Recover the amino acids of this structure.
């Protein structure tokens, strides 16, 4: 269990800064592209966007935690292709996208529909990227190649030394 918690902590340390680097660019895009309804100030709406984005990040980290627990305790195998781990990864990915999109759309109630869709899209991109990066870099050894792109990313020498 300590190993799972340590993997989660490392995943958080690696993935969360990426999330916080994306938010200012998205906030700027939303400020300049969409009209906020008159019932709320634009700066308040951007603050709300950031708050909901943090909730979506936490949802993403929760799904990452589920992946790590399943990898460490359910899939004790020698061949990752025969384990069905990739199927679990895609199921969690699909659930994450659905939950984050619905949550992001309904929590961003201060804009017109176009603004809600774009904000929900940004929440989805952030959550998916954090989930993908965390699972690629911190998956258990038995499932380290299950996330799409893990094989290619692990070939990069600098990342190989970082995650080994």
């Amino acid at each position: 269990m300590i190993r799972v918690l340590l993997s989660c902590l490392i995943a958080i340390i690696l993935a969360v800064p990426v999330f916080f680097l994306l938010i200012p660019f998205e906030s700027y895009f939303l400020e300049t592209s969409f009209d906020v309804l008159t019932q709320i100030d634009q700066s308040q709406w951007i603050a709300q966007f950031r708050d909901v984005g943090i909730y979506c990040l936490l949802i993403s980290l929760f799904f990452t935690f589920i992946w790590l627990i399943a990898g460490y305790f359910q899939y004790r195998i020698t061949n990752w292709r025969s384990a069905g781990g990739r199927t679990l990864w895609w199921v969690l990915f699909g659930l994450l996208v659905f939950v984050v999109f619905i949550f992001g759309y309904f929590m961003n109630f201060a804009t017109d529909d176009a603004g809600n869709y774009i904000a929900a899209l940004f929440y989805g991109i952030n959550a998916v990227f954090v989930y993908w990066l965390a699972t690629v870099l911190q998956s258990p050894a038995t499932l380290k190649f299950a996330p799409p792109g893990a094989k290619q990313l692990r070939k990069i020498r600098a990342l190989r030394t970082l995650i080994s």
Q: What stands out?
A: The chain is about 80% helix and 0% strand. Residues 102 and 120 are 8 Å apart (CA to CA).
